[in-house]
Amino acid sequence: GLSQYSSDPRTEWDLSAYSTREQVLEAVRNLRYKGGNTFTGLALTHVLEQNLKPEAGARLEAEKLVILLTDGKSQDDANLAAQTLKNLGIEIFAIGVKNADEAELRQVASAPLELTVHNVLDFPLLSSLAGKLTRVLCARIEERSHKETADTPVNTGPQLSPTDLKISAVTSKSMHLAWSPPVRPPKKYRVVYYPSKGGTPKEVVLEGAASSLQLSNLTSHTEYLVSVIPEYDAATGDALRGVTSTLPLSSPRSLRVSELSHNSLRLSWKAAQGATHYLVLCSAAPDGAED
User: Fold this and answer.
1) Domain 163-246 has CATH 2.60.40.10
2) What pLDDT, on a 0 to 100 scale, did the predictor assign at position 157?
């Protein structure tokens, strides 16, 4: 599977899209370059939320690997998003080109860093990594597969996953989340939320007995993506996802002008709920316009 990113990640194809090497190589040849910013944290969250799920071809029993290819320093918190993936048992390889930040690559990647972090001076030099990276990836998959025990619980849908996410009491700055817990209570929940059009994912960790959360200090008039992820000692349930928008801030109304003189005027309006200050801007009307 492959996703390309700038300020907004874009899935190019899912894990289940192609079944032969030739098909994948043809898809790579037809790939359109996506220019723009470098929101690596948002991209990693996109991969978790959109690409590493059963509907996109991710098999529950398969090892999960993410290869991050970047040529710049992230403009959001890539480390927090990467830690979320690593906490779920997803291994990250970080490949830097040109202006990539070596320290950031080492933060994002999984251990051991001597195997998972690579940096080259220019794009043509990536070809020298292909053979080595292939061998390392195959070896890591084999090594991790051998560590799995027969009695390790796997994701079993409703047994381990919450349902019925309800988002209520939405204001310009907050919203309330509530959900129905799974049959088997988790050890803890991780609630991840972030603006859909780009921004640093934030995370709240709750005890497994919880079934609701109040999100505060949100940005007004903004669409948020929310994920509730249950975690067990040796397994992770399906994330429960939702999307909603915070309300716009209220506006002042009924602007009136009075007490006009040659160099002054008085303004009055109906107050905006919750406002603590007002900014009043005044400029001369252009020639020909009504004063």
Assistant:
1) yes
2) 53
